[in-house]
Design a protein that fits this description.
Blueprint lengths: L11 E7 L4 E7 L13 E2 L5 E9 L2 H10 L9 H12 L9 E9 L4 E6 L8 E5 L2 E5 L3 H5 L10 H8 L12 E3 L4 E6 L4 E6 L12 H18 L7 E4 L4 H14 L4 E6 L8 H8 L5 E6 L2 H14 L8 H12 L4 E3 L4 H5 L4 H11 L4 H6 L19 H9 L4 H8 L3 H9 L12 H26 L4 E3 L5 H8 L3 H4 L7 H6 L6 H4 L10 H6 L13 H11 L5 H10 L4
Parallel strand pairs: 12-13, 12-15, 13-14, 15-16
Antiparallel strand pairs: 1-2, 3-4, 4-5, 5-6, 6-10, 7-8, 7-9, 10-11
Helix pairs in contact: 1-2, 4-14, 5-17, 9-16, 11-16, 14-15, 22-23
């Protein structure tokens, strides 16, 4: 299992065995804080009463360490890993809510004979688990379970989920009964009775609602500067992904104030001018003192590395290619950690879905039977309306962001529509989201799209190159501050992310935000259209897939749908 994860932890490896409790911890280390052998994992406290294997960063570990020192706790390293252990031994599970960072870790308490699996509140770092025959196995990537011979049984429903969502949503994976631990939760395993319970740990305290726009701007400014500054902590080379968009540009400018001439930035550009953001990157770079690494990515690069990209995915997805390339270059440029702008769109209304919610509200007033009856007569661009034949928030989300309709998925997979609907609409736990407003959209984008696609793909693609990606917009204190702002101020229907932009005026140049949104996208419509396998309709077995691929070759279908079909073609 450890060997299969070597790409994410190339610097060191370790095992801990406790025969009495039938326990083995394994670890692959990516050294970022305290590069010495003191950071070796699995790690124990000084008295060896507890052990930990930990993936991630605790950004406020120095503050917690100082608290513990005042309580008489002794340390033998300056790592955040040892702080987690000592905090747990001092405060128990109450310690988990004190951590600000991105983390997935396991703690073994040898006195109480308990093992804990713990995941951060934003779900930035993944942790998967499998319980079978009174045993618990866990890993940070799904591939480790098959590599270790723990389980190889496939979840036969994963192609359904991929074709609907464009990814495999939590808690599901490609393996049967291998699940993702929910964010902000811990699993407690009793090593004596081989029983477990999953609990949510305490979240940061809710703040009073902010209704004054000037106060809101000041709160955002203060919280984001604090987030960026503490996420710059590293004993290894660190940089920022600079795409040229609002989010990455803002983070770069704030990080530059902290690091100045030491700041590294990494950028990508293309020969295809429609996707090239060099001009906007240049606007920001003119204000920086540090070093920029800029890389041209061409069609041939995509062709050359395509099989490596597929392998790096761990589980099928229709995103992450951009993250794979920029992580590759960051690693080659000598960096161990980078800052990314993921999260700003979700928290400040940066997607079209925020304005489309009013149309969804209108459609939901119509009888669902209308959408069910229309499934055989709707043209391709409108087939997603048939999602509304089903009740619930997942159907709403799939109308906004889904790929293939239930009827089309059934045809592609040779299944019946009822089975497809059962998998999609009866196996996801979504709370009542209330009125169809921008808060509703923010929940969708944060807890479904960002959680299941952006964060997972960013983590697995970056770790495939031994690179850590940090996301200041998802800092617990920052998101708590943003969520305390009333929706009327937080969102703006005429300009996306207006509150964020205004909070950092005049630091953020107008030419960066006063332009059409591009997103961090690649020319994949062209590149995949020229890929000899993806666009080869003879490789697809069913009639509908062949039809979709032929439309793709004529540029009438988005590349992501063709890519989804490509990844399941061997399974249908």
């Amino acid at each position: 299992m450890c060997n299969s994860l070597q790409h994410g932890g190339p610097d060191d490896e370790g095992l801990f065995v406790n025969k009495e409790d039938h326990l083995v911890f394994g670890h692959r280390r990516l050294s970022i804080i305290d590069l010495s052998s003191n950071g070796h994992q699995p790690m124990s406290d000084i008295r060896q009463t507890a052990w930990i294997t930990f993936n991630g960063e605790i950004y406020n570990y120095q503050d917690i360490r100082n608290q513990l020192l005042k309580l008489g706790v002794q340390f033998r390293s300056v790592t955040d890993t040892e702080v987690i252990l000592s905090a747990y031994l001092q405060w128990g599970t109450a310690a988990f809510s004190k951590f600000r960072g991105m983390f997935a870790f396991a703690i073994f308490d040898s006195v109480k004979h308990l093992t804990y699996l713990v995941r951060d509140t934003a779900g930035i770092k993944p942790i998967y688990y499998f319980i079978n025959n009174q045993s618990l196995s866990f890993a940070s990537e799904v591939r480790a379970f098959t590599a270790g011979g723990i389980t190889t049984e496939k979840d036969n429903n994963w192609p359904i989920r991929l074709l609907a969502f464009g990814h495999i949503p939590e808690p599901y994976t490609t393996l049967k009964n291998v699940f993702s631990l929910p964010k902000g939760h811990y699993l407690r395993w009793d090593n004596t009775s081989s029983t477990h319970v999953i609990s949510k740990y305490e979240q940061p305290n809710k703040r009073e609602q902010i209704t004054n726009i000037d106060e809101a701007r000041e709160v955002i400014k203060t919280a984001l500067i604090k987030s960026v500054n503490r996420q710059m902590i590293a004993d290894a080379p660190l940089g920022v992904f600079l795409s040229g968009g609002i989010d990455s540009s803002l983070l770069t400018l704030l990080a530059d104030k902290e690091k100045e001439e030491q700041l590294n930035t990494i950028s990508i550009f293309f020969n295809e001018k429609l996707y090239d953001e060099q001009a906007y990157q240049g606007v920001v770079l003119k204000q920086l003192k540090g070093k920029n690494f800029s890389h041209l990515v061409k069609q041939q690069d995509f062709e050359t590395h395509f099989s490596q990209i597929i392998t790096a995915m761990d589980m099928p997805t229709t995103d992450g290619i951009n993250s794979w390339f920029i992580s590759k270059y960051a690693h080659e440029d000598g960096l161990k950690a980078v800052l990314s702008g993921v999260g700003a769109d979700e928290y400040f209304g940066g997607y079209p879905s925020f304005n489309r919610m009013r149309y969804l509200a209108f459609l939901r007033k119509m009888p669902s039977s209308i959408f069910s009856a229309a499934k055989n007569i709707l043209p391709d661009p409108y087939k997603k309306l048939t999602f509304l034949a089903n009740e619930g928030s997942i159907a709403d989300y799939l109308l906004l962001r889904g790929f293939f309709s239930p009827g089309d998925i059934a045809m592609i997979l040779g299944a019946n529509t009822r089975q497809i609907q059962e998998v999609l609409f009866n196996s996801h736990d979504v709370p009542d989201l209330g009125p169809y407003n921008q808060e509703h959209a923010a929940w969708f984008e944060t807890n479904l799209y960002m959680q299941n696609q952006l964060l997972r793909d960013t983590d697995v693609m970056s770790m495939s190159h031994g690179l850590e990606v940090r996301v200041p917009f998802l800092d617990e204190d920052f998101t708590a501050a943003v969520e305390s702002i009333t929706p009327e101020i937080r969102f703006n229907s005429t300009q996306s992310k207006k509150l964020l932009i205004d909070s950092f005026s005049p630091l953020l140049p107008a030419s960066i935000w006063n332009r059409p949104k591009m997103g961090f996208t690649f020319p994949l419509q062209t590149w995949m259209g020229q890929h000899p396998e993806i666009n080869n309709s003879s490789l697809y077995k069913d009639k509908l897939s062949k039809k979709v691929i032929n439309k793709f070759k004529n540029n009438r279908i988005h590349w992501s749908k063709a890519f989804a079909l490509y990844q399941i073609k061997a399974h249908v």
